[in-house]
Specification:
It contains 8 helices and 20 strands. The protein is of the alpha+beta class. It is elongated and about 80 Å long. 35% of the residues are buried. The protein binds adenosine-5'-triphosphate and magnesium ion. The site of adenosine-5'-triphosphate has 13 residues, from helix 1. Magnesium ion (MG) binds next to helix 1.
Length: 366
């Protein structure tokens, strides 16, 4: 079967209503997914949410229980892995210990019956790409963790696959090396313009590296979008809190005025635009701690919402504030810009200011 399903974008990988059931568990529920050609797409979510299963369905190691998988517009549902074109780096990026670096990288080419002369050229090019051109004769045990990781990458890209699949490739590395490799993988991916699906449960990694991110929970995509969309406009409480810290403000709808909907939040009246709800309805809003600014009670910034300080934690560049609005806990992060610090002792009265446009109405929990 070679049906072409309609699409809004030039998708290299597409799922339409893909369901995956194992004996006892449903790993994916009716997943729709579009990954644009040449982009880096991150699958982000907690353990067991279905990230690896999604990757294995793209690779063809698993087949959907129902629904369809398309690669480059072709329906590949039912096509086995060995007939698909992908490079993969597994979570444990095991290299063959008894083969040299060059032999490790050549492995996939030998399996594909590439000529000896071509293998030499392609392996050299792939090792240059990951800046290991001089280390081809070494064995994996003679390399650092980061160098081994680059060999695994070279091995995955050497035969120029349609799609590169990376399953938590950096989780074994320490923080410094991981951050360095994040940048390297991103540069490599952009240079090769290779459609890449990157699995991680590290939100910063997903935000740093990707063109688009899908946040998964319990076998469903909660939200997909650019890092900025996902961070600034989370649709659910899960997405808001999984990607960094967020306040969840509970509000009761009071009615409408000329500009928007009037809300009561812990005894304070606020008006927000772009929200439709009946009077009496309860709504939840996400508000990032860094969107809140702090003024003293006698400061020259009038208005704002009265709050008291529960605790202030000095973090060098920033201060993390645990606050209380009429008993409702709220966190704020303020930059320590070097001005005379105001009183932030526990119990101090302050006023909170934020732009109501930064309050993001959340969908009820799914
Ligand atoms: N071969 C299998 N047989 C039965 N259940 C499976 C199988 N593979 C995965 N599952 C189940 O499917 C769900 C999703 O698993 P998956 O490996 O995709 O999660 P994940 O998001 O990659 O998690 P992690 O971050 O821990 O790697 C889990 O509940 C898992 O137990
Ligand atoms: Mg996994």
């Amino acid at each position: 079967m070679n049906t072409q399903a309609p699409s809004m974008i030039n998708a290299d990988v597409r799922f339409t209503r893909v369901e995956k059931k194992f004996d006892t568990a449903t790993a994916l529920h009716s997943l729709d997914l579009e990954i644009e050609r040449g982009s880096l797409f991150a699958l982000l979510g907690p353990s067991g949410c279905g990230k690896t299963t999604t990757l294995r369905l793209i690779a063809g190691f698993e087949q959907p229980t129902s629904g369809h998988v398309y690669i480059r517009g072709n329906d590949v549902t039912g096509v086995p892995a060995y007939k698909r074109s992908f490079g993969m780096v597994f979570q444990s990026f095991a290299l063959f210990p008894h083969l040299t670096v060059a032999e490790n990288v050549a492995f996939g080419l030998k399996m594909r019956n590439v000529s000896k002369a071509d293998i030499v050229t392609k392996v050299a090019a792939a090792l240059d790409l990951v800046e290991l051109g001089k280390l081809g004769e070494r064995y994996p045990r003679q390399l650092s963790g980061g160098q081994q990781q680059r060999v695994a990458l070279a091995r995955a890209v050497v035969f120029e696959p349609d799609v590169l699949l990376l399953d938590e490739p950096l989780s074994a590395l320490d923080k410094m090396l991981r951050e360095q490799m994040q940048v390297e993988i991103r540069h490599l991916q952009q240079r090769l313009k290779m459609t890449t699906v990157f699995v991680t449960h590290d939100q910063e990694e997903a935000l740093t590296m990707s063109d688009r991110v899908a946040v998964m929970k319990d076998g469903r995509i909660q939200q997909a979008g650019t890092p900025r969309e996902i961070y600034d406009r989370p649709r659910t409480e899960f997405v808001a809190t999984f990607l960094g810290a967020s306040n969840i403000l509970e509000a009761i709808v009071k009615g409408k005025d000329g500009t928007g909907t009037i809300l009561d939040i812990a005894g304070n009246t606020l008006s927000v635009a772009g929200v439709t709800a009946e009077a009496g309805a309860k709504l939840c809003f996400a508000l990032r701690p860094e969107k809140i600014s702090i003024g003293s009670m006698d400061g020259n910034q009038p208005g704002g919402i009265a709050a008291s300080v529960r605790e202030a934690i000095y973090r060098g560049a920033q201060t993390l504030l645990y606050l209380d609005i009429n008993g409702m806990p709220v966190n704020a992060v303020v930059q320590n810009a070097g001005v005379e610090p105001m009183n932030l002792e526990p119990g101090a009265a302050v006023r909170l200011h934020w732009d109501n446009d930064n309050m993001v109405a959340l969908e009820p929990a799914r």
